[in-house]
Design a protein that fits this description.
Layout (H helix, E strand, L loop, with lengths): L17 H7 L3 E3 L3 H10 L3 E3 L9 H10 L4 E3 L7 H12 L2 H14 L4 H10 L1
Parallel strand pairs: 1-2, 2-3
Length: 125
């Protein structure tokens, strides 16, 4: 459906040095687990979130909603995707620099830089 892949695109199953991938990323397509979303916010990576449909209590959908509602990410339910509409939606997004910049700014606002300190304060109190 994509034809020739984008010259700057890269698809990987797993990355052991994720900080380097995030530093180079303009967009992430991923599931919506809490750790992943925390990292995406930290690095300000706009995202397409496809919640794992079999997650306990569908918690990944709720996680994705928290990020999609303010416009930091797009929520794409897996059961609504096929190869053609995935390609169409992805192409529309990656060619919209203004939208990606807006998503990036909104993602950065969701980061909590002092999260570790806050957790320590709660545990210590």
């Amino acid at each position: 459906a994509f034809g020739k892949p984008p010259e700057a695109g890269k698809v990987v199953d797993f990355c052991s040095d994720i900080q380097f991938a995030y530093a180079a990323a303009d967009l992430a397509v991923c599931r919506s687990g809490a750790s992943t979303l925390t990292e995406l916010a930290h690095y300000g990576i706009p995202s397409i979130l496809i919640p794992y449909p079999f997650a306990a209590d569908d918690h990944q959908t709720r996680n994705a909603e928290i990020f999609s509602e303010p416009g930091a990410a797009e929520l794409w339910p897996q059961d609504e995707l096929d190869e053609a509409n995935f390609a169409e939606k992805l192409t529309a997004l990656i060619t919209d620099d203004k939208r990606l910049a807006d998503m990036c700014a909104k993602m950065e606002k969701l980061a909590i830089p002092d999260a570790s300190e806050r957790i320590c304060d709660v545990v210590a109190s």
